[in-house]
Design brief:
This protein starts with 5 loop residues before the first strand and ends in an 8-residue tail after the last strand. The chain contains no helices and 6 strands. Helix content is about 0%, strand content about 50%. The strands form 2 sheets. Strands 3-2-5-6 form a 4-stranded antiparallel beta sheet, with no helix packed on it. A two-stranded antiparallel ribbon has the order 1-4. The chain is mainly β. A hairpin with a 7-residue loop joins strand 2 and strand 3.
Length: about 80
């Protein structure tokens, strides 16, 4: 059963580069995924979480965006 502030989110990579998405502002919790161009990923997190979007090559990455997860929320 989800926690009360648990939300279902969807992130879509609408670029031509692979993105690494990460949530790092929740203590004792880890979330990281690779999202290929044109693909989407669904995930559950807390409403106050922030999604970091990293782009770049194999040896380096650049933090290109931070998105509040409540903006990515979908209807269950």
């Amino acid at each position: 059963m989800p926690l009360p502030e648990d939300i279902l989110c969807c992130y879509t990579n609408d670029t031509d580069q692979c993105h690494i998405i990460r949530i790092s502002n929740i203590p004792c919790w880890f979330f990281e995924r690779a999202v290929f161009p044109g693909k989407s990923v669904f995930f559950r997190t807390f409403s106050h979480a922030r999604l970091e979007v990293h782009t770049g090559g194999m040896s380096s990455s650049i933090l290109s965006d931070i998105i509040p997860c409540d903006r990515l929320a979908t209807s269950n």
